[in-house]
Specification:
Two copies of one chain form a homodimer. With 361 residues, chain A is α/β, with parallel strands linked by helices. Helix content of chain A is 40%, strand content 14%. Chain A has 13 helices and twelve strands. In chain A, the strands form two sheets. A six-stranded parallel beta sheet of chain A has the order 2-1-3-4-5-11, sandwiched between helices. In chain A, 50% of the residues are buried. Mean pLDDT of chain A is 86; it is low at 1-10 and 14-24. Chains A and B meet through helix 4, helix 5, strand 2, helix 6 and helix 11 of A and helix 4, helix 5, strand 2, helix 6 and helix 11 of B. The first copy, chain A, binds a DNA duplex (30 and 30 nucleotides) through residues 12, 21, 26-29, 37-41, 43-44, 47, 49-53, 56, 71-81.
DNA sequence: GCGGGGTGCCTAAACGTTTTGGCATCGGGC
DNA sequence: GCCCGATGCCAAAACGTTTAGGCACCCCGC
């Protein structure tokens, strides 16, 4: 009938902040009125529940689209006991500073987009020693990025009844929570094989000791690879909180110095490069470097560092999906949590340029 | 009346944020019951409105504290037409990648904490070409970090009626929005004076050309300083989207090469250092460097780079405060928006170590 | 003794959804 | 002709707050 084209407001119908119920009536009510049905039917049509005739459903959907209708999240949440808020947080020692931020930001952005599609909003929960923010935030669920081993935050969130999905795993409770992770055993092997293929003889590993799963995954994959290929194990770990230069220096000054390093964090690549300069070693001629997480530094340093693209966008997206699924069919008491593996891609750069004369058939 | 089961019922109101459908009657209702007052009075007491006797107010507050009561944000928002969500976004060209992320993350964290204190949650809105996420997110207001000149996003948000506070200014609409900003004229001068004091004769500036206010502020402060101190203007700009190495190279290879550079972004410091190495210039002996925003790279590079600590925590906190104030007393039509200046601090590091023999009284 | 203004509190009506529990109508099977 | 299930829709009751409006009471001045 009267198909007036209304401006699309943020939600509700034409809800300029100052305006209150002038004439039009509430959002869903207005949609129902224009479609000539009851509010109930409109709600059912929009949510795909209840019994609604096909033609009626179409009509409601069309009206809603025209009006740019979006359900008021407060009202929806009030009735449904949900808040529409998801938390996402990074497990980082507060004093140690945030590392490999780009990886983190990309995960967050991807998760935000994914949540948006299902009418959830993502809140970035700042790291804190006591997890205080989680007490105050009305979250329907939380993504925890790179949990520690036996992470107290997970314990706490569990006790609070907040659904949790992790990115990386808490090593001490193998599969208690749903998680998304890189298949690091494969990724690391790809990196190590690449180093071998470009002529490295003595491949070392620089990993961390934070208790986050990637540290240990890399170490295990590395040890396996050394055993399988009959190479020496040249492994060192950066102490948490320090600048990791010390560990790089230890590795590069030991007797039988490695001629290639696989370093887990982007910042380790940074430190390694500095140590190489300090020791007068050139990259890639004397030492090849592969870093375990791509980022601005790996791309922009000279020489640019070969890196694993861990596909943080995919990780973020899948973590959000998983979390929203868990929230959707809440209890699922007996079922084992779902897990997803994300492949990584090796980005070859100057730091592992094949050496002249190191060709192998 | 008052002899109802009062002490710490294990399944009382106990509204841990994540809990779903807990029993025991509604939250506020339960508080009112235990305090022996009506829901209205309880609400009034908790919000400090209406007329409530002092003793009654105390009683209600005590009960609420004991019960750990927190108002259901959905219900509160439903009635009050607010959502309790604030957006925060960074103006970055999508393809150019995020730069100086640490600065950004620190602002976000600080703003999150500040919002928390007033029962707001902060949503990190991902950058997008079309600003789409803002259509879908039910935000009460938004913080825009480092807006562009004549920023279309600001136009759009304005049209949507969403209150906005910026961090840095949109240069084309001087004071249309409330903002928080570093007092860059002062900060830049401090940096330049420091370079002069450590013996630099020809001080150059490497800034950007993104249209964000800090680029122009730095340029203006630099030109003023050169004029005032009678020094030559050695200014170049990085093209947006490139890695800024080119601009650094232009500056460092021009006739009358600068012996000190003030570079606006942390990433420019990165590029400058690389170019210095490439050209065989040593830092700080041949070229001193000050970067305009501190971060992991400035701290961790060798030599470590002298940097301005822009106090992103303070900026984030104040931006959130400003925004919540604006939302609180919404209309304020005639009043000019509030502005706040945040001081920065120069962190002296190796890249500007005073040269031997360059002492000035 | 009465009006009037304050005070302290309460009842009831919103807010915009989802969900519950229907009521008609229709078409078949007997 | 009757019963029964399926279908399409609706009215009303939640959800937990805030807020408008109002009632009773007290104290004071007249």
């Amino acid at each position: 009938m009267s198909d007036v084209t209304e401006p699309h407001g943020p939600h509700g119908v034409d809800r300029k902040p100052g305006r209150r119920g002038a004439g039009g009536g509430g959002g869903l009510r207005e949609v129902a009125r224009r479609a000539g049905v009851s509010v109930t039917t409109a709600s059912h049509a929009l949510n795909g529940v209840g019994r609604v005739g096909a033609d009626t459903r179409e009509r409601v959907l069309a009206v809603a689209r025209d009006l740019g209708y979006r359900a008021n999240p407060n009202a929806r949440g009030l009735r449904g006991a949900r808040t529409g808020l998801l938390g996402i947080t990074h497990r980082t020692s507060v004093e140690g500073g945030i590392t490999d931020i780009e990886y983190f930001v990309k995960i967050v952005n991807a998760a935000t987009w994914t949540a948006l599609d299902r009418d959830y909003s993502l809140v970035l929960v700042p790291p804190s020693l006591d997890g205080r923010p989680f007490e105050s935030l009305p979250l329907d669920g939380t993504i925890v990025i790179d949990p520690l081993t036996d992470d107290p935050l997970l314990t706490r969130l569990s006790a609070m009844g907040v659904p949790v999905v992790t990115t990386g795993r808490d090593l001490s409770r193998k599969d208690a929570f749903p998680w998304v992770d890189n298949e690091l055993s494969t990724c690391a092997q790809a990196a190590l094989d690449h180093l071998a293929a470009t002529g490295a003889q003595r491949v070392g590993l620089l990993t961390g000791s934070t208790g986050q799963s990637y540290d240990e995954d890399a170490a295990r994959a590395y040890r396996d690879w050394c055993a399988r290929t009959g190479r020496p194990v040249l492994l060192d770990r950066a102490e948490p909180g320090t600048d990791s230069t010390a560990a790089a220096r230890r590795l590069l000054t030991r007797p039988g110095r490695p001629d290639a390093l696989y370093v887990v964090m982007e910042k380790f690549g940074f430190a390694t490069l500095a140590v190489c300069r300090e020791l007068g070693l050139s990259v890639p001629e004397d030492v090849q470097i592969v870093v375990g997480a791509d980022g601005e530094f790996a791309r922009g340093s000279r020489p640019a560092l070969t890196a694993l693209d861990l596909a943080p966008e995919s990780i973020g997206r899948q973590a959000a999906e998983l979390l929203m699924n868990v929230i959707g069919n809440l209890p699922e008491p007996g079922a084992t949590p779902e897990h997803r593996l994300v492949p990584a891609k090796l980005l070859e750069r100057e730091s592992t340029r094949r050496r002249a004369g190191a060709e192998r058939s």
